[in-house]
Amino acid sequence: xxxxxxxxxxxxxxxxxxxxxxxxxxxxxxxxxxxxxxxxxxxxxxxxxxxxxxxxxxxxxxxxxxxxxxxxxxxxxxxxxxxxxxxxxxxxxxxxxxxxxxxxxxxxxxxxxxxxxxxxxxxxxxxxxxxxxxxxxxxxxxxxxxxxxxxxxxxxxxxxxxxxxxxxxxxxxxxxxxxxxxxxxxxxxxxxxxxxxxxxxxxxxxxxxxxxxxxxxxxxxxxxxxxxxxxxxxxxxxxxxxxxxxxxxxxxxxxxxxxxxxxxxxxxxxxxxxxxxxx
Length: 279
What we know:
- 32% of the residues lie in helices and 29% in strands.
- The chain contains nine helices and 13 strands.
- Helix 2 crosses helix 3 (109-118) and helix 4 runs parallel beside helix 5 (164-179).
């Protein structure tokens, strides 16, 4: 797959404090890329640098084949951004909000109706934004972010502070947009979310990427060298993960019910690598 984002030796400091230190990563077109780490790890700073809202101290940033320059708007027609500072006009209706943003982005008004239908907002289009539920407000922010059909979508903690049902709605929207060809750069400290959604993940800690790969590859890499055999009588046996040990275990009397490999989740791997919780 072609590259969508390339970060090379990126360093960013604030008042003498290093937020990102010699950061390197590559995001491929068409994938959901999870940029994972606790609050304060540098996730939001990375998005602001990639979208030209901040300038780095050093390093190179390329997005959709173009070098990123702070304040230059040439990329804005091809990217969408949803952060905790994304907003809309509370006193305007859903439709009025989207019609306004369509004019700003020079998007056809026909597209407004398409997005209203796509995101399940058509029945709420005449409702003032301030009257929407939290989940519907999140849908409206998504609608604004994808209105101009971006090739690349940045999502900064898109399910933070949402209830499980609303979070699942957001996950469906993410999958839907990705299935239509949009590359997604997702920051989160929710490792369960990342494991469910992402094609590739990177663990960010103190300005560095300490590990990266597909969720399944990482879980296999850090899996215990053992499997667990559970029998019908309730007996549970752990044996080495090799053919001879398994053969010996299978010779034991009793009806075997299950065999489980001991694969950690992403949260456990992150804690093992960094010694840090994700709060």
